[in-house]
Amino acid sequence: MKELSIVIPLYNEEESLSELKAWIDRVLKGRSYEVIFVDDGSRDGSWAEVQRLAEADAERVVGIRMARNYGKSAGLQMGFQAATGRVVITMDADLQDSPEEIAELERKILEDGYDLVSGWKKKRHDPLSKTIPTRLYNAATRWVSGIELHDFNCGLKAYRLEVVKAIEVQGEMHRYIPILAKSVGFDRIGEQVVQHQARKYGSSKFGLERFINGFLDLMTIGFMSRFSRKPMHFFGALGVMMFLVSLAGFSWIALGKLISIWEGNPTRNITEISAFYVSLTGMVFGLQFFLTGFLAEMTSRNDTKRHDYQVAEHIKKQ
Ligand code: UDP
Ligand code: MG
After folding, report:
1. Less packed terminus of the chain by CB within 10 Å, N or C?
2. Which mean pLDDT values do the consecutive 10-residue runs of the chain (318 residues) have?
3. Nearest CA to ligand 1 atom 21
4. pLDDT of residue 133
5. CB 85 within 8 A of CB 161
6. Which atom of ligand 1 approaches the CA of 38 most closely?
7. Please, which residues bridge with residue 88 across strands?
8. How far is the CA of 8 from the centre of ligand 1 (A)?
9. What is the pTM of this model?
């Protein structure tokens, strides 16, 4: 078993790779480690570069080439599956993250007992158009997840091996790995201020759409981590609420009518009362929520992973 696995997802980063590998080798001299390059369908010479690095250092380099560009999450997932080191480090391939940080990240996992330590690019070298939305996004993520991190999406992170084997990074969920880890019980999550360099070669692979997609994913993950095993508790609660409000509306209308009749006043048609339409709409929506809840329950009951719980310890009899 190696001491460290360095997982590096990359997409069109040919200029950076050999420099990065040399830097890692320099920093980790004398240690036992592997470097896992996951080429996420690059269209430049990145794969040739990975092959060259693997030839030069067959003992340490693992190369995985995806058949097409699936996205950074897929790259990380493949890297996690291949990783064998006691501590797993992820870093971007673009030389923005510094391998010098690895030692301290590893120490925090091994000695301070963290499951996951996330880098925090306190001083960023990115354009303002990126840093300001990033602050908002991090605040929203803290609020949804209850995890006190400043920089959820930092590419530089360290994990205990069990953590990367337990989580599944799908879609574009690489932005929320700490939440994924917490949802399977690894909640000792720490943070470390790291140096951040400006991009030296190539260009960023994510544009402004990252914030819209990131926000949608945050809603999904907030919902999934709480209700994926009991969706009816979410939809049913909404349905009941709508139903009760509507029922109150109808009762109010009926009561008004009865009082009018009792007092011998002329009564209005219910279609002339605005509360009628509000209540009617509420009923229809409430029913929709219920039906959605039932459908969601049926789907989640068929989930092949429905019994995949993360067991922390298990004492067996002799
Ligand atoms: N990346 C990837 N697949 C993609 C997009 C990006 O593997 O579809 C890699 C990229 O090569 C880099 C890391 O993910 O190693 C972070 O990407 P980038 O530097 O473009 O993001 P930024 O630093 O702008 O947030
Ligand atoms: Mg970058």
Report:
1. C
2. 96 97 97 98 97 97 98 98 98 96 98 97 85 91 95 96 96 95 95 93 87 91 90 96 96 94 90 92 96 95 87 92
3. 204
4. 87
5. yes
6. 7
7. 5, 159
8. 10
9. 0.89
CB < 8 Å & 24+ apart, contacts of 249-253: 249/275, 249/276, 249/278, 249/279, 249/282, 250/276, 250/279, 253/279
C-alpha distances (whole Å) from 265 to each of 69, 109, 256, 262 are: 73, 78, 11, 8
Measured in angstroms, how far is the CA atom of residue 162 from the centroid of ligand 2?
A: 27
Question: For ligand 1, atom 16, which residue shows the shortest CA distance?
Answer: 92
CATH superfamily of 4-227: Spore Coat Polysaccharide Biosynthesis Protein SpsA; Chain A (3.90.550.10)
- For the packed helices 209-227 and 128-145, what is the interaxial angle rounded to 10 degrees? 10
Residues 6+ apart with CB under 8 A from 169: 73, 74, 76, 77, 80, 177, 180
pLDDT at position 211 is 86
Residue with tokens 């310890």: 313
Q: Do residues 68 and 39 lie in contact, with contact meaning Cβ atoms separated by under 8 Å?
A: no
Residues with CB under 6 A from ligand 1: 9-11, 13, 40, 69, 71-72, 75, 92-94, 96, 155, 204-206
Q: Given this model, what pLDDT does residue 126 score?
A: 80
- DSSP output for 252-272: HHHHHHHHHHHHTPPPPPGGG
Tokens of 11: 């997409």
Segments making up each domain of the chain, as ranges: 4-227, 232-301
Closest ligand (CA of 8): 1
pLDDT score, position 305: 83
